[in-house]
Design brief:
Structural class: mainly beta
Shape: elongated
Largest sheet: 6 strands, mixed
Number of domains: 2
Strand content: 35-45%
Number of helices: 3
Distance between the termini: 60 Å
Radius of gyration: 29 Å
Length: 289
Protein backbone atom coordinates (compact mmCIF):
# COMPACT_ATOMS: atom_id res chain seq x y z
CA UNK A 1 0.00 0.00 0.00
CA UNK A 2 1.20 3.50 -0.82
CA UNK A 3 1.93 6.40 1.50
CA UNK A 4 -0.73 7.88 3.73
CA UNK A 5 -2.08 11.15 2.36
CA UNK A 6 -5.38 12.21 3.93
CA UNK A 7 -7.74 11.40 6.77
CA UNK A 8 -11.32 12.45 7.31
CA UNK A 9 -13.33 12.38 10.48
CA UNK A 10 -16.38 10.35 11.47
CA UNK A 11 -19.60 10.51 9.51
CA UNK A 12 -22.76 10.24 11.57
CA UNK A 13 -25.24 9.15 8.94
CA UNK A 14 -26.39 5.54 9.06
CA UNK A 15 -27.76 3.05 6.57
CA UNK A 16 -30.06 0.17 7.42
CA UNK A 17 -29.86 -3.17 5.68
CA UNK A 18 -32.76 -4.86 7.40
CA UNK A 19 -35.62 -3.47 9.42
CA UNK A 20 -38.71 -4.98 10.94
CA UNK A 21 -39.95 -2.53 13.52
CA UNK A 22 -41.71 -4.22 16.40
CA UNK A 23 -41.18 -1.46 18.94
CA UNK A 24 -40.98 2.31 18.78
CA UNK A 25 -38.37 2.60 21.55
CA UNK A 26 -34.85 3.61 20.58
CA UNK A 27 -32.07 1.12 21.24
CA UNK A 28 -28.48 1.85 22.29
CA UNK A 29 -25.85 -0.72 21.42
CA UNK A 30 -22.87 -1.98 23.41
CA UNK A 31 -19.40 -1.47 21.95
CA UNK A 32 -17.39 -4.69 21.58
CA UNK A 33 -14.12 -5.43 19.81
CA UNK A 34 -13.12 -8.35 17.62
CA UNK A 35 -10.94 -10.76 19.63
CA UNK A 36 -8.14 -10.46 17.05
CA UNK A 37 -7.99 -6.68 17.40
CA UNK A 38 -5.17 -5.41 19.60
CA UNK A 39 -6.73 -2.14 20.77
CA UNK A 40 -4.87 0.13 23.17
CA UNK A 41 -6.61 1.90 26.04
CA UNK A 42 -6.40 5.25 24.26
CA UNK A 43 -7.88 3.78 21.07
CA UNK A 44 -10.75 2.29 23.07
CA UNK A 45 -11.57 5.74 24.41
CA UNK A 46 -11.64 7.12 20.86
CA UNK A 47 -13.99 4.37 19.67
CA UNK A 48 -16.18 4.84 22.74
CA UNK A 49 -16.40 8.55 21.99
CA UNK A 50 -17.55 7.95 18.41
CA UNK A 51 -19.90 5.18 19.50
CA UNK A 52 -21.62 7.44 22.02
CA UNK A 53 -22.22 10.05 19.32
CA UNK A 54 -24.18 7.63 17.13
CA UNK A 55 -27.94 8.05 16.91
CA UNK A 56 -29.90 5.24 18.61
CA UNK A 57 -31.43 2.57 16.38
CA UNK A 58 -34.87 1.01 16.36
CA UNK A 59 -35.25 -2.65 17.34
CA UNK A 60 -34.48 -5.30 14.71
CA UNK A 61 -31.99 -3.34 12.62
CA UNK A 62 -28.56 -4.04 11.17
CA UNK A 63 -26.73 -0.78 10.58
CA UNK A 64 -23.39 0.49 9.30
CA UNK A 65 -21.94 3.90 10.21
CA UNK A 66 -18.68 5.43 9.00
CA UNK A 67 -16.11 6.49 11.60
CA UNK A 68 -13.16 7.70 9.51
CA UNK A 69 -11.58 7.39 6.08
CA UNK A 70 -7.82 7.05 5.53
CA UNK A 71 -6.85 7.65 1.91
CA UNK A 72 -3.71 6.20 0.31
CA UNK A 73 -2.16 6.37 -3.15
CA UNK A 74 -3.69 3.05 -4.21
CA UNK A 75 -6.99 3.21 -2.35
CA UNK A 76 -8.49 4.02 1.02
CA UNK A 77 -9.58 2.38 4.26
CA UNK A 78 -12.86 3.12 6.01
CA UNK A 79 -13.32 2.33 9.66
CA UNK A 80 -16.99 1.67 10.30
CA UNK A 81 -19.31 0.51 13.07
CA UNK A 82 -21.50 -2.53 12.40
CA UNK A 83 -24.48 -2.48 14.77
CA UNK A 84 -27.09 -5.15 15.46
CA UNK A 85 -30.35 -4.59 17.35
CA UNK A 86 -31.89 -7.94 16.47
CA UNK A 87 -32.87 -10.26 19.31
CA UNK A 88 -30.13 -12.70 18.26
CA UNK A 89 -26.49 -12.49 17.28
CA UNK A 90 -25.83 -12.49 13.54
CA UNK A 91 -23.03 -13.32 11.13
CA UNK A 92 -22.62 -11.40 7.90
CA UNK A 93 -21.39 -13.43 4.93
CA UNK A 94 -21.20 -11.24 1.82
CA UNK A 95 -22.22 -7.58 1.77
CA UNK A 96 -22.23 -4.96 -0.97
CA UNK A 97 -21.16 -1.55 0.32
CA UNK A 98 -21.43 1.91 -1.20
CA UNK A 99 -19.55 5.08 -0.32
CA UNK A 100 -21.87 8.02 -1.01
CA UNK A 101 -21.51 11.80 -1.17
CA UNK A 102 -23.91 14.12 0.67
CA UNK A 103 -26.35 14.04 -2.25
CA UNK A 104 -26.46 10.25 -2.29
CA UNK A 105 -24.29 9.77 -5.37
CA UNK A 106 -22.04 6.70 -5.34
CA UNK A 107 -18.34 7.44 -4.93
CA UNK A 108 -17.16 3.84 -4.56
CA UNK A 109 -18.60 0.35 -4.50
CA UNK A 110 -17.22 -2.99 -3.31
CA UNK A 111 -18.39 -6.45 -2.29
CA UNK A 112 -16.87 -7.73 0.97
CA UNK A 113 -16.66 -11.25 2.37
CA UNK A 114 -17.41 -10.69 6.05
CA UNK A 115 -16.83 -14.17 7.49
CA UNK A 116 -13.70 -12.95 9.27
CA UNK A 117 -15.75 -10.38 11.20
CA UNK A 118 -17.43 -13.21 13.05
CA UNK A 119 -20.49 -12.80 15.21
CA UNK A 120 -22.10 -9.46 15.94
CA UNK A 121 -23.90 -9.95 19.28
CA UNK A 122 -27.44 -8.87 19.89
CA UNK A 123 -27.47 -5.14 20.78
CA UNK A 124 -23.77 -5.07 19.88
CA UNK A 125 -21.56 -2.70 17.90
CA UNK A 126 -18.26 -3.83 16.35
CA UNK A 127 -15.74 -1.50 14.65
CA UNK A 128 -14.16 -2.88 11.49
CA UNK A 129 -11.79 -1.67 8.77
CA UNK A 130 -12.79 -1.94 5.11
CA UNK A 131 -10.14 -1.71 2.40
CA UNK A 132 -11.17 -0.15 -0.93
CA UNK A 133 -8.76 -0.14 -3.88
CA UNK A 134 -8.51 2.55 -6.55
CA UNK A 135 -10.45 0.24 -8.88
CA UNK A 136 -13.41 0.38 -6.48
CA UNK A 137 -13.72 4.15 -6.89
CA UNK A 138 -16.42 5.46 -9.21
CA UNK A 139 -15.06 9.02 -9.34
CA UNK A 140 -11.74 10.58 -10.19
CA UNK A 141 -11.68 13.02 -7.26
CA UNK A 142 -10.34 12.28 -3.79
CA UNK A 143 -13.09 10.82 -1.62
CA UNK A 144 -11.46 12.26 1.50
CA UNK A 145 -12.46 15.72 0.24
CA UNK A 146 -16.15 14.75 0.19
CA UNK A 147 -18.71 14.67 2.97
CA UNK A 148 -19.12 10.94 2.67
CA UNK A 149 -21.23 8.20 4.21
CA UNK A 150 -21.10 4.42 3.87
CA UNK A 151 -24.18 2.31 3.30
CA UNK A 152 -25.33 -1.19 2.47
CA UNK A 153 -26.28 -1.55 -1.18
CA UNK A 154 -29.70 -3.16 -1.13
CA UNK A 155 -30.02 -4.81 -4.50
CA UNK A 156 -33.59 -5.37 -5.51
CA UNK A 157 -34.11 -8.66 -7.22
CA UNK A 158 -35.54 -8.14 -10.66
CA UNK A 159 -38.28 -10.71 -10.99
CA UNK A 160 -38.01 -12.43 -14.33
CA UNK A 161 -41.30 -12.90 -16.16
CA UNK A 162 -42.40 -16.52 -16.32
CA UNK A 163 -41.99 -17.96 -19.80
CA UNK A 164 -43.23 -21.14 -21.43
CA UNK A 165 -40.77 -24.00 -21.79
CA UNK A 166 -41.60 -27.01 -23.96
CA UNK A 167 -39.87 -30.33 -24.36
CA UNK A 168 -38.71 -31.02 -27.92
CA UNK A 169 -41.41 -33.65 -28.37
CA UNK A 170 -44.06 -31.08 -27.49
CA UNK A 171 -42.61 -28.52 -29.89
CA UNK A 172 -42.70 -31.08 -32.71
CA UNK A 173 -46.22 -32.39 -32.11
CA UNK A 174 -48.17 -29.46 -30.69
CA UNK A 175 -49.94 -27.19 -33.22
CA UNK A 176 -48.72 -23.59 -33.31
CA UNK A 177 -52.10 -22.26 -32.16
CA UNK A 178 -52.00 -24.43 -29.03
CA UNK A 179 -48.47 -23.24 -28.26
CA UNK A 180 -49.69 -19.65 -28.58
CA UNK A 181 -52.58 -20.37 -26.20
CA UNK A 182 -50.17 -21.87 -23.67
CA UNK A 183 -47.91 -18.82 -23.94
CA UNK A 184 -50.89 -16.53 -23.34
CA UNK A 185 -51.97 -18.62 -20.34
CA UNK A 186 -48.50 -18.47 -18.76
CA UNK A 187 -48.36 -14.70 -19.26
CA UNK A 188 -51.78 -14.11 -17.65
CA UNK A 189 -51.34 -16.26 -14.54
CA UNK A 190 -50.79 -14.42 -11.24
CA UNK A 191 -47.13 -14.37 -10.19
CA UNK A 192 -45.78 -16.87 -7.69
CA UNK A 193 -43.72 -16.10 -4.61
CA UNK A 194 -39.95 -16.13 -5.08
CA UNK A 195 -38.71 -19.71 -4.87
CA UNK A 196 -42.18 -21.26 -5.21
CA UNK A 197 -42.82 -24.33 -7.36
CA UNK A 198 -46.46 -24.78 -8.33
CA UNK A 199 -48.43 -27.55 -10.06
CA UNK A 200 -51.52 -26.32 -11.92
CA UNK A 201 -53.91 -28.59 -13.78
CA UNK A 202 -54.85 -27.21 -17.19
CA UNK A 203 -56.72 -30.11 -18.86
CA UNK A 204 -58.25 -33.46 -17.96
CA UNK A 205 -59.89 -36.09 -20.15
CA UNK A 206 -60.34 -39.84 -20.60
CA UNK A 207 -58.45 -41.57 -23.40
CA UNK A 208 -59.86 -44.31 -25.63
CA UNK A 209 -58.28 -46.99 -23.41
CA UNK A 210 -59.89 -45.43 -20.29
CA UNK A 211 -56.77 -43.79 -18.98
CA UNK A 212 -57.21 -40.42 -17.30
CA UNK A 213 -54.97 -37.88 -19.04
CA UNK A 214 -54.12 -34.94 -16.79
CA UNK A 215 -52.01 -32.12 -18.19
CA UNK A 216 -50.21 -30.14 -15.53
CA UNK A 217 -48.38 -26.82 -15.84
CA UNK A 218 -45.27 -27.04 -13.65
CA UNK A 219 -44.31 -23.51 -12.67
CA UNK A 220 -40.83 -22.86 -11.26
CA UNK A 221 -40.46 -19.37 -9.72
CA UNK A 222 -37.09 -20.14 -8.15
CA UNK A 223 -33.75 -18.95 -9.51
CA UNK A 224 -32.53 -22.53 -9.96
CA UNK A 225 -33.47 -25.32 -12.34
CA UNK A 226 -35.34 -28.22 -10.77
CA UNK A 227 -35.35 -31.89 -11.79
CA UNK A 228 -38.30 -34.19 -11.11
CA UNK A 229 -37.73 -37.93 -10.90
CA UNK A 230 -40.54 -39.29 -8.73
CA UNK A 231 -43.87 -37.47 -8.43
CA UNK A 232 -46.97 -38.63 -6.52
CA UNK A 233 -50.21 -36.98 -7.67
CA UNK A 234 -53.89 -36.94 -6.71
CA UNK A 235 -56.82 -35.65 -8.73
CA UNK A 236 -59.99 -34.35 -7.08
CA UNK A 237 -63.23 -33.45 -8.83
CA UNK A 238 -65.80 -30.74 -8.10
CA UNK A 239 -67.14 -32.75 -5.14
CA UNK A 240 -63.67 -32.97 -3.54
CA UNK A 241 -63.61 -36.68 -4.28
CA UNK A 242 -60.25 -38.26 -5.13
CA UNK A 243 -60.94 -39.71 -8.57
CA UNK A 244 -57.38 -40.79 -9.37
CA UNK A 245 -54.06 -41.14 -7.64
CA UNK A 246 -50.68 -42.55 -8.51
CA UNK A 247 -46.91 -42.14 -8.39
CA UNK A 248 -45.01 -41.33 -11.57
CA UNK A 249 -41.39 -42.11 -12.35
CA UNK A 250 -39.97 -39.44 -14.62
CA UNK A 251 -36.82 -39.48 -16.72
CA UNK A 252 -35.23 -36.53 -14.92
CA UNK A 253 -37.81 -34.03 -16.10
CA UNK A 254 -36.12 -30.60 -15.84
CA UNK A 255 -37.98 -27.34 -15.36
CA UNK A 256 -35.68 -24.36 -15.78
CA UNK A 257 -35.70 -21.33 -13.48
CA UNK A 258 -38.51 -18.82 -14.13
CA UNK A 259 -40.27 -21.11 -16.60
CA UNK A 260 -43.53 -23.03 -16.84
CA UNK A 261 -43.49 -26.48 -18.44
CA UNK A 262 -46.61 -28.51 -19.33
CA UNK A 263 -46.57 -32.26 -18.85
CA UNK A 264 -49.26 -34.91 -19.26
CA UNK A 265 -49.68 -37.68 -16.69
CA UNK A 266 -51.66 -40.81 -17.58
CA UNK A 267 -53.55 -42.53 -14.76
CA UNK A 268 -54.37 -46.17 -15.65
CA UNK A 269 -57.90 -47.38 -14.98
CA UNK A 270 -56.83 -49.28 -11.87
CA UNK A 271 -55.61 -46.04 -10.26
CA UNK A 272 -59.02 -44.38 -10.72
CA UNK A 273 -61.98 -44.54 -8.35
CA UNK A 274 -65.33 -46.07 -9.32
CA UNK A 275 -67.08 -42.74 -8.80
CA UNK A 276 -68.30 -40.94 -11.91
CA UNK A 277 -66.15 -37.78 -11.77
CA UNK A 278 -67.54 -34.27 -12.08
CA UNK A 279 -64.84 -32.29 -13.87
CA UNK A 280 -66.75 -29.00 -13.93
CA UNK A 281 -64.18 -28.07 -11.32
CA UNK A 282 -61.11 -30.07 -10.41
CA UNK A 283 -57.58 -29.91 -9.09
CA UNK A 284 -54.38 -31.93 -9.18
CA UNK A 285 -51.88 -31.81 -6.33
CA UNK A 286 -49.00 -33.52 -4.58
CA UNK A 287 -50.38 -35.33 -1.50
CA UNK A 288 -48.86 -34.66 1.90
CA UNK A 289 -46.54 -37.41 3.03
Amino acid sequence: MGLFTKKTQPQEEEATIEQETVDTDDVKTNLVFHPDWNVSTSEKYVYQFHHQKLEPLKPNQISISGVKLDEFEDGFVITAFFRNTLAKAIRLEIVDLLVLDEEGNALARKTFEMDILGEIPSMGCIPWRLLFSTEDKLVETAIANEKWTIAFELKQKVKKPMVLELEDSWKENLPAEQITKLEELVAKLPPLQDGEVNFMGISVSHTENEQLAVTVLIRNASDKNITLEQLPLKVEDANNVVVAQGSFTLDKLEVKASTSKPWTFLFPKETQSDVQPDFSKWRVYIPQQ
